[in-house]
Design brief:
Layout (H helix, E strand, L loop, with lengths): L3 E5 L4 H5 L10 H18 L10 E5 L3 H7 L6 E3 L16 H7 L1 H9 L12 H7 L1 H9 L3 E6 L1 H12 L15 E7 L5 E7 L2
Parallel strand pairs: 1-4, 2-3, 2-4
Antiparallel strand pairs: 1-5, 5-6
Bound molecules: 6-O-phosphono-beta-D-fructofuranose.
Length: 199
């Protein structure tokens, strides 16, 4: 792979209401991000296009909010189930306060060990880290620039792999909305990182 761009989907209707999981569409603000993303990306891509033709692929999850965010990107797209957001099981569609209210023991257990905590009937960060492995193998193989449009927990796992983040730190990595993260392979084998807020 040459460069990897990572971005969460634009703000969703669930994000707006503070609900986790689900499969909602973008909010008004999220749509605005989806419209601004092609320009922001093309500006960054133009830095690398001297004489070589630009070869870019866009990978999304199978959820509406990433597909809608990627819609206006003028590149071939691939949908990965392995990029879907962490499955919150019985807590899907709830707010964090609602979870603390209805399932206080679950909320406490997650706070104690967010990396290993598995939502009942759902996933843990450890599960997600394992699940994205095939995506990472393909990313390593890929010769073109890849733009990954995915979700908070899943992107923490992908980012951590390339930036050598220790597992214990993964669940609390900053992965804000409406930000384009550019990872550039360096001569020493590590990745350089730049972040671009898009508004
Ligand atoms: O709130 C958006 C979201 O993508 C949820 O769907 C998901 O459960 C959550 O973020 C993951 O972040 P955290 O592990 O910090 O709760």
């Amino acid at each position: 792979v040459r460069k990897i761009f990572l971005t969460r989907h634009g703000e969703s209707q669930y994000n707006q209401k503070g609900l986790i999981g689900g499969n909602s569409s973008l909010s008004e603000r999220g749509e605005k991000y989806a419209r601004a993303l092609p320009g922001a990306l093309l500006e960054r891509l133009s830095v690398d296009t001297q004489d070589e033709p630009l070869s870019v692929a866009v990978w999304t999850s199978t959820l509406k909010r990433t597909i809608e965010t990627a819609r206006s990107l003028p590149f071939p797209k691939l949908r990965w189930k392995a990029l879907d957001e962490i499955n919150a099981g019985i807590c899907d569609g709830m707010t964090y306060e609602g979870i603390a209210d209805k399932y206080p023991d679950e909320a406490a257990a997650r706070k104690r060990d967010k990396l290993r905590y598995r939502y009942p009937a759902g996933e843990s960060y450890m599960d997600v880290i394992q699940r994205v492995e095939p995506v990472i193998i393909e990313l390593e193989r890929e010769r073109e620039t890849v733009v990954v449009v995915a979700h908070q927990a899943v992107l923490r796992a992908v980012y951590a792999y390339f930036m050598n983040v220790p597992p214990e730190d993964i669940p609390r990595l900053a992965m804000p909305l409406h930000t384009l993260i550019e990872l550039t392979p360096m001569p020493d084998g590590t990745m350089g990182e730049q972040r671009f807020p898009v508004d």
